[in-house]
Structure to design on (503 residues):
């Protein structure tokens, strides 16, 4: 049994180093030029090389247009189209996946990850044996010279006092970390391996407006193709709640529904009357499709808990019982599908005319954090010009990079100890579509964009309510949203908070 727990250490993670790391001799090893790549045995590696170009995939890619293609097929297709790093960015856009991609040609040596950054990458910003890896604590463990905890007082204060208040203590702000000289590679950025500098690669063109019918057709084809691809290659499970995103994946799975295990985890915050259990049970009963409600409570073996908390820096006990009692013990051979479609909705609303770092930090629920405000202001100064030039909604880009790129990735990284998780929305292809449609189609519950996708793929799913309020507070928020007042009131309240904060 101890051997099993030993194999769970840093499961599905990787490390790239300037020098050999003898302690990782039981991991997969791949030299690339003069650097050394180590990958846990459960992380798939695919390599394709031409005389002037090398492409190394850590994880997996799916081709929605050709669902039967393998990682090797896709990487071969990509390499055949690539003569430069910019070619690479264009070539991988149509695919979905959870991956880190190492690219080398005569002028560039870089690594980037999937658009949401779910296959996380952290990197050293000063010379060290370690260049980059999946987690900051993994980097710290094998660093030479040893890096240790940062001495930056503002970071330490944020970690000790502000962070515990933000989304169950799991929402970091910005690209810095708790460790000295270690940064987080944020979504839409790549790392130059030679200089240890992160650079933005997306958005890289002006997004032209797209009409609703075209957006719906292209999005439905993409999602249905992705679901066919993942169910062709893996055993699949899919959580379905009363929400918009999970039901859109259910709609996309209609043609492959017999290949999917549908479920919901009965977390401590839920009971049989909760909408996230009651609605999907009714829905699947009407569809005559098996649906499973998992009990998540039960003891967790201490050896597993210790490995779990050590594997991912931001991990907590929050979802540990689910990961151990549901995924690890009963579904470890499956791929768990989760959907993040918030970029297709008006999640944060329209940016105020005088957008500030404080307003962004306040959207992350940091009301009095000077560190969070400074980090958001820094992001704003860097992103404002590119969003204006490329006609990208700055609040949606902030949602993508500021919230989903930090808080959003933690759960996936935590689950790696037990199960592989994949988000079919994780592609620049569909996110560009979502950002190109008119704002009026992204408001409401569900928005016109999603409603039209349900009508195209599985119209019966519209017969059941979306996120019906469980509490008086939920009901009030839902009413304010329907009346078009919620975003106005939020903006006024945050503006008032800022006046008190700066006074």
């Amino acid at each position: 049994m101890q051997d099993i727990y030993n194999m769970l250490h840093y499961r599905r993670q990787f490390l790239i180093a300037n020098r050999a790391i003898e302690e990782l001799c039981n991991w997969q090893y791949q030299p690339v030029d003069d650097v050394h790549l180590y990958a846990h045995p459960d992380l798939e590696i695919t390599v394709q090389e031409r005389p002037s170009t090398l492409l190394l995939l850590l994880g997996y890619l799916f081709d929605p247009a050709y669902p039967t293609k393998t990682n090797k097929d896709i990487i071969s297709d990509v390499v055949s189209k690539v003569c430069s790093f910019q070619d690479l960015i264009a070539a991988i856009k149509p695919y979905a996946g959870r991956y880190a991609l190492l690219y080398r040609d005569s002028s560039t040596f870089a690594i980037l990850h999937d658009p949401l950054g779910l296959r996380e990458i952290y990197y050293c910003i000063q010379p060290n044996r370690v260049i980059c890896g999946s987690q900051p604590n993994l980097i710290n463990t094998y660093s030479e010279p040893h890096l240790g905890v940062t001495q930056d007082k503002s970071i330490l204060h944020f970690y000790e006092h502000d962070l515990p208040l933000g989304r169950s203590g799991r929402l970091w702000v910005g690209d810095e970390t708790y460790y000295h000289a270690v940064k987080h590679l944020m979504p839409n950025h790549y790392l130059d391996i030679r200089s240890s500098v992160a650079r933005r690669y997306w958005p890289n063109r002006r997004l032209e407006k797209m009409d609703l019918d075209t957006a719906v057709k292209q999005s439905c084809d993409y999602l249905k193709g992705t679901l066919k691809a993942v169910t062709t290659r893996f055993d699949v499970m899919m959580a379905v709640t009363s929400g918009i995103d999970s039901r859109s994946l259910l709609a996309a799975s209609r043609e492959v529904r017999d290949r999917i295990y549908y479920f919901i985890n009965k977390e401590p915050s839920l009971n049989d009357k909760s909408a996230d259990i009651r609605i999907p049970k009714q829905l699947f009963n009407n569809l005559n499709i098996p649906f499973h409600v998992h009990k998540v409570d039960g003891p967790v073996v201490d050896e597993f808990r210790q490995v779990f908390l050590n594997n991912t820096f931001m991990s907590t006990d929050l979802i540990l019982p689910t990961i151990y009692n549901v995924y690890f013990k009963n579904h470890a051979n499956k791929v768990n599908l989760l959907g993040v479609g918030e970029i297709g909705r008006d999640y944060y609303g329209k940016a105020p005319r005088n957008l500030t770092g404080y307003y962004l930090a306040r959207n992350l629920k940091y009301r009095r954090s000077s560190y969070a405000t400074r980090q958001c202001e820094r992001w704003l100064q860097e992103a404002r010009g590119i969003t204006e030039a490329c006609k990208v909604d700055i609040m949606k880009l902030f949602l993508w990079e500021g919230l989903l790129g930090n808080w959003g990735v933690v759960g996936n990284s935590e689950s790696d100890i037990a199960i592989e998780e994949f988000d079919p929305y994780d592609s620049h292809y569909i996110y560009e579509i979502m950002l190109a449609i008119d704002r009026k189609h992204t408001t409401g519950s569900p928005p016109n964009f999603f409603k039209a996708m349900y009508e195209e793929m599985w119209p019966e799913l519209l017969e059941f309510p979306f996120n019906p309020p469980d509490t008086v507070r939920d009901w009030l928020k839902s009413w304010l949203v329907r009346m078009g007042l919620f975003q106005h009131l939020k903006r006024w309240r945050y503006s008032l908070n800022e006046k008190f904060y700066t006074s």
Observations:
- The chain has two domains: 10-200, 212-343+406-468.
- The radius of gyration is 22 Å.
